[in-house]
Amino acid sequence: MQKVDCGYCGSEQSRTYGIERSGKGLHPTWVECLGCGLLYANPRAECDEIREYYANYYEKGPFESYLDDKELEAVALNEAGKMISRIAQRVPSGVLVDTGFGAGFMVAAAVRAGYEVWGNDLSPETVDHAVKRWGLPEDHFRAGNIEEANFDSEMADCLFAWHIIEHVLDLHSFMKEITRILKPGGLLVMGTENNLNLHNRLDRLGCFLRRRVPPPPTATEHTFGFTNRLLRRLLEDYGFRIISFRAYEDNWMGAYLRPPRSKHVEKRIVQWLDLLVRRYPLYWLSQFVDIGQKIEVFAVKPPA
Known about the structure:
Blueprint: E1 14-19, E2 29-33, E3 39-41, H1 47-55, H2 70-88, E4 95-99, H3 105-112, E5 116-121, H4 124-134, E6 141-143, H5 146-149, E7 156-162, H6 171-181, E8 182-193, H7 198-209, E9 224-225, H8 228-237, E10 241-248, H9 265-286, E11 294-300
Parallel strand pairs: 4-5, 4-7, 5-6, 7-8
Antiparallel strand pairs: 1-2, 2-3, 3-9, 8-11, 10-11
């Protein structure tokens, strides 16, 4: 593990924000930068350790059946198709680069829609899976991070970076690279987490009232955590014009608002009360106010 400074402003000043008490995960300790407010893992795992973790990302935990689950594949392809339809309203054709494409659902949907698709992923396994599963040209899909993929400058009409920025090691290197790859006037579609969503704030308040250190604001495999304000600021620093920005929740029967499943009746009653009194209202409120757990951004690189 290595001590790191803030990945956005470079400040060395920070305060503890959350700790995974079990000590498990790549990054159990998270801090908040006192200079800019960025949330980040500190100390951070060594680069080789992170690469080893992602090399077999889809063979462990909740992802172990991710590449073989046909029911999930059908749902994911449908959702990817909806996203492609939205992208097509602004970029109806051309080159689409998907960085960190995972199982390749977005790649497959984009190919079906007629785009010329390129992509990269840190896991060689997922690159191999995507090429074979969707019949893709091997030279378009590369193992490694976006800097190592070495895509041509100003090649992309659209760059899709869905829940990737929270995983990167060098924030500014990542932003410089996606800016380089996009054509002037090209569309950036980015997704990440809103780590100061209302749900997290209420959970943190509960921890403080019980005099407990809050857990990390996000999964311990991540390296960075963002707020709405900070992500807007970062994109604007690199000249992007934001045309759509929302912090949203999944549908109420999705991951955020799971039906209670505890085997203990008492716990299940408490979970249902939590669902009806707190989580369900928060979901509906998030439809009108940017307090949701996830962020979606459509932004345009300025013309030359």
